[in-house]
């Protein structure tokens, strides 16, 4: 599942101790390669990751988080980085 992903990180409750397996979703931050515009692939990646995690995945880019990115930066756990 390359899809031009440069980095994939976990944040939110799944990256902290307040994750509730019965009701929490998984918040992920995806950074695409420079010049890559994923379009519909972004939603396909979210679906594939939901299947992998067995729960709803909220897939965000830095642009989608905007000013909220600074507030979640302390929770971020890197899951994947393209070599």
Describe the structure in your own words.
With 83 residues, the chain is an alpha+beta fold. The chain has one domain (5-81): Beta Polymerase, domain 2. The chain has helices spanning 41-53, 62-65, 69-72; strands spanning 5-11, 26-32, 57-60, 77-81. Strands 3-2-1-4 form a four-stranded mixed β-sheet. The longest helix is centred in the middle third of the chain and has 13 residues, at 41-53. The two termini are 15 Å apart.
Classify the secondary structure makeup into a structural class: alpha+beta
Identify the strand order in the major beta sheet.
Answer: 3-2-1-4
**Poorly predicted ranges:** none
Q: Supply the CATH architecture.
A: 2-Layer Sandwich
- Principal-axis shape equals globular
Give the ordered list of helices and strands: EEHEHHE
Share of residues in strands: 25-35%
What is the structure about, briefly put?
By secondary structure, the protein is of the alpha+beta class. The protein has helices spanning 41-53, 62-65, 69-72, and strands at 5-11, 26-32, 57-60, 77-81. The protein is globular, with a radius of gyration of 12 Å.
Question: What's the helix and strand layout?
Answer:
Elements: E1 5-11, E2 26-32, H1 41-53, E3 57-60, H2 62-65, H3 69-72, E4 77-81
Parallel strand pairs: 2-3
Antiparallel strand pairs: 1-2, 1-4
